[in-house]
Design a protein that fits this description.
binds adenosine-5'-triphosphate, globular, 12 helices, four-stranded antiparallel sheet, alpha/beta, 14 strands, binds magnesium ion, 440 residues, Rossmann fold
Length: 440
């Protein structure tokens, strides 16, 4: 008996430990079977009390009443499929006439408590069908991307959604994007995750990091170009505009309207331009910088408006991005379809990012706590939004990936003058370093 008791105690202790330390394991061993059972037993009554049932059709009511001589009960959505995952439970429901996905969304808080799960989100899979995505524990506490999530094509899984699925940044669906967030909210880590994924794909990466390259110069082995000062950025962006025009000539020579329609042998490689801290490009300290600002803004707007068709993509990061940045700022913002908003200090910043694409997400973004860096609200083009969090990826890890895939840097002669020299974190055309110690 002593043995049995110790065994049971050890088992219980192990489970308690697993619940905190390895929630995935705990969920698979205990949470999933318990929740599945609870769901199966209480489905009908839960849907009934949550107001998610409809009156049966007349024919059905007639058959029930007269042929089976049973009471006519309201009918809940039919369960088409139940599937356990490593983070939760997915249930596909066929909606009866009279219910819409919004009804389930409105009741999701009640469902979550009824089945004792961490969260319930509702996704419409096709007309008439919805998927209830339950998560058994807080998946955003320690983020791990699902095993199948891998970069491919031009799509990179960068973060985890609250419902346990990967948030994929797909450049062919959303060609341009904007990431906002206060200091230390996790914007650079988001871009770092993007670079980690993009590095393995056949694309050219261009960095513009006007904080003297503190963030991006470490990724030099995989970058085709890097600008670390506004002056460099201005000329680099003009070179990109030139590249865009050349590519349009190529499209018109082949009589197509999109690079993806070109035969593979002549198709130019896609370029992703990553801008860290966009305000640095807009703000000027003196009158003489005005002309530079004008060049930068014009080039950025032209790229944002037209470059999608030729496979040039903008990925812009900043703390704020409103009209206070001056002429052209809101016009550029309007071109950036993808929006990711990290923790913000004021409601206006959240509104800058989300008000025009997903207004009900503004409140959620304003409530992200500071102790969870990397958490953000991502709006997608369909008007929906999701809470996401990036995996905590160290710079060294990404540097290693960049080194490993350095051979994938494509041949783009136009960008060669801006190719960061390895070893030195400054761009190739920067003034020689030897001039600095002359004053010693
Ligand atoms: N997903 C995450 N999980 C855990 N920690 C994170 C995550 N994302 C970011 N952090 C931490 O938060 C801190 C700030 O991140 P980051 O440098 O990306 O912020 P930022 O928004 O770029 O700030 P700044 O505006 O000052 O450049 C870093 O120390 C980083 O380790
Ligand atoms: Mg940063």
């Amino acid at each position: 008996m002593v043995l049995e008791a110790t065994g049971a105690l050890a088992g219980a202790g192990g489970l308690g430990y697993a619940k905190v330390r390895a929630p995935r394991v705990y969920w698979s061993l205990v949470g999933l079977p318990v929740t599945w059972g609870r769901f199966a037993l209480s489905y009908r009554s839960t849907m009934d009390v949550c107001g998610l049932t409809v009156q049966p059709s007349r024919l059905r009511a007639f058959v029930t009443r007269n042929l089976t001589r049973r009471e006519v009960l309201p009918v809940p959505p039919k369960v088409r499929r139940v599937r356990g995952t490593s983070t939760g439970l997915r249930v596909t429901l066929r909606l009866p006439a009279g219910l819409e996905p919004a009804d389930l969304v409105a009741a999701s808080e009640r469902l979550r408590h009824a089945w004792g799960v961490h969260a319930v989100t509702v996704a419409e899979t096709k007309p008439g069908y919805v998927e209830l995505r339950m998560t058994g524990y807080d998946v955003l506490r320690r983020v791990r991307l699902p095993r199948g999530a891998r970069p491919e094509g031009l799509a990179v899984p960068v973060a985890l959604r609250e419902d346990g699925t990967a948030f994929v940044r797909d450049y062919r669906k959303v060609p341009m994007a904007l990431t906002l967030g206060a200091n230390n909210s996790g914007k650079s880590v988001y871009q770092r995750n993007l670079i980690k994924g993009l590095a393995r794909l056949p694309v050219a990466l261009v960095g513009i990091d006007c904080k003297r390259g503190v963030e991006q110069s470490a990724y030099a082995p995989r970058l085709s170009a890097l600008a670390t000062t506004p002056d460099d950025a201005a000329s680099l962006l003009e070179v990109l505009v030139g590249e865009m025009e050349d590519r349009f000539d190529l499209l018109s020579a082949h009589r197509v309207s999109d690079v993806w329609e070109l035969p593979e042998t002549v198709r130019p490689v896609p370029i992703v331009v990553l801008v860290d801290e966009v305000a640095e490009l807009f703000l000027i300290s003196s009158r003489k910088d005005e002309e530079r600002r004008e060049r930068i803004v014009t080039a950025l707007i032209r790229l944002a408006q037209m470059a999608r068709a030729v496979g040039i993509h903008l990925e812009i990061c900043g703390q704020r991005f409103g009209s206070e940045l001056g002429k052209g700022a809101t016009m550029l913002r309007a071109q950036l379809t993808g929006r990711v908003v990290h923790r913000v200090n004021d409601k206006q910043t959240a509104e800058m990012g989300l008000a025009d694409v997903a207004p009900d997400a503004v409140v959620v973004a304003s409530l992200i706590p500071a102790e969870r860096p990397g958490t953000a609200v991502a709006a997608d083009s369909s008007g929906g939004w999701a809470k996401i969090r990036t995996p905590h990826t160290s710079r060294d890890e990404v540097v290693a990936v960049c080194r490993r895939f350095a051979h994938l840097v494509p041949d783009l002669p136009a960008l060669d003058p801006y190719r960061p020299s390895l070893g030195l974190p400054a761009p190739a055309d920067a003034p020689p370093v030897e001039s600095a110690p002359a004053t010693v």
